[in-house]
Specification:
The complex is a heterodimer of chains A (267) and B (189). Chain A is mostly helical and 267 residues long. Chain A is built from eight helices and no strands. In chain A, helix 3 crosses helix 4.
């Protein structure tokens, strides 16, 4: 084929190259698209798994944040109950009070018009109660240093007697609870003896004090019909609720955003 | 009206392809692949390697389609990606040396070639150049980049780019003269 030679103004060689090459097309091979498509599918899968990983990571971090913050709030708001044990400074006063309670309960319900008779009855009741309680109260001081191992049995017996008296006096549920506590302590001591474990006075003290603490705590809680624990729980739940609400809102918002992003990406 | 519709159709196609719609991607590929293979072929002698580079270029196009902001022509954007892929391929496969020699040359003598070549001949001439000369020549003469742009793309100085271009032209002229001397039926005026 003869080449065409331009006689007019010469074409710049580079312009010629540019014109020819810019418009040139070369048809790709038939399987070129399938290769590209499979590469794109691979990339889609990797992107999908990485976005799922991101979702899991986001969800885990939100849950973890919520759990940690809840723990912090829970630990913060639980009040440390100090001085759980109610110190009994004057046993005599307490005994006097008990006596009075018993006397009040044992007093005849029927009104006695004659004041002298009434007073006599009251005195008799008081004397009886005092005798009973004195007998029951005649127990060795638990906290004295000279307590011997055999004292544990005497202590246990004394406790039983007291429990019986209290039982006779009233079937008050609170007193029933005391009975249970005392019985529990006795059972623990007996168990230890059975197992040939040497039960020291300190151990008995500890058990009794623990029972006393529990009783006192429950008395405090129940006497005024106000539950400190319930109060605390209420406050805690309020605070927690506010915080919970906030966290749930944040979690919900985050989840919605992630959901929308995934939906858009999949379209 | 038709042009506006066409443009709207293509931008919709691009948006769908950006969302990894395979059908939209296929349509874009069918439209631009022949031209982009030609672009890659300008830099890479072997057609099979050129096709591989073209496919890897399209993979990048479709994975980064969200970055296209519809501010210039889509073809120009794709073409730029193909050129970068071709240069990366050549750098990876071949050791390309660029000389920093500064030379004085005259452009006027270069443009006194009165011969028109067919596309295949032009490609042959370009293929005969070493990789370094070829890259600079094609970027300057075919793509229309300036020396400062070429210098940035290839990581060389402007003077190196000019030197490479001069040497490429010199070599091409030599080859053309050889062809003119041996070919039959060619008359020089």
């Amino acid at each position: 084929m003869n080449k065409i030679i331009l006689v007019m103004a010469p074409l710049k060689f580079e312009d010629n190259i540019k014109d020819k090459l810019k418009d040139r097309t070369i048809t790709p091979s038939k399987d070129a698209w399938s290769k590209l498509s499979s590469e794109l599918d691979k990339e889609d899968k990797e992107a999908g798994s990485s976005s799922k990983l991101w979702l899991y990571a986001i969800a885990a971090s939100i849950v973890g944040f919520f759990a940690v913050t809840s723990l912090i709030y829970t630990n913060k708001d639980v009040p440390v109950i100090k001085n759980e044990m109610v110190e009994v400074s004057d046993p005599e006063l307490i005994q006097e009070k008990k006596n009075q309670q018993t006397i009040d309960k044992l007093e005849p319900k029927v009104e006695i018009e004659d004041p002298v008779v009434k007073e006599n009855v009251r005195t008799d009741v008081a004397t009886t109660v005092k005798k009973q309680n004195t007998k029951a109260a005649k127990q060795p001081e638990i906290n004295t240093a000279e307590d011997l191992p055999s004292m544990e049995i005497r202590v246990a017996n004394t406790v039983i007697e007291q429990a019986e008296i209290i039982k006779e006096e009233s079937k008050d549920p609170f007193k029933v609870q005391i009975e249970h506590k005392v019985a529990g302590v006795i059972a623990q001591v007996e168990e230890m003896e059975k197992n040939n474990i040497q039960v020291t006075d300190e151990e008995i003290n500890r058990l009794l004090q623990e029972a006393q603490r529990e009783i006192t705590t429950e008395r405090i809680l129940n006497t005024n019909k106000v539950s400190a624990t319930a109060l605390l729980q209420d406050v805690e739940s309020e605070l927690d609720e506010t915080f919970k609400q906030r966290v749930f809102e944040a979690l919900k918002a985050g989840f919605i955003k992630v959901k929308e992003a995934v939906a858009e990406r999949n379209q | 009206m038709k042009v506006v519709q066409f443009y709207n159709n293509e931008s919709q196609l691009i948006k769908k392809a950006a969302k990894q719609n395979r059908d939209a991607q296929h349509r874009l590929y069918e439209k631009y692949a022949p031209k982009m293979l030609s672009v890659c072929r300008q830099y890479i002698r072997d057609i099979h390697f050129a096709e591989e580079v073209m496919l890897s270029g399209f993979l990048k196009v479709f994975l980064n389609l969200t970055k296209f902001k519809f501010e210039g022509s889509f073809e120009g954007w794709v073409r730029r990606i193909m050129i970068n892929e071709s240069i990366s391929f050549l750098r990876k496969e071949k050791e390309i040396f660029f000389t920093d020699e500064i030379l004085n040359y005259k452009e006027e003598s270069w443009n006194n070639i009165y011969t028109e070549f067919e596309v295949e001949q032009i490609q042959e001439l370009i293929d005969s150049l070493p990789e370094g000369y070829r890259m600079v020549f094609v970027l300057y003469a075919v793509e229309g980049y300036k020396h400062n742009e070429i210098a940035k793309m290839l990581g060389v100085s402007e003077s190196t780019s000019k030197t490479q271009l001069f040497k490429a032209r010199k070599l091409l002229q030599q080859k053309i003269n050889e062809q003119n001397n041996i070919s039959n039926g060619t008359i020089k005026i």
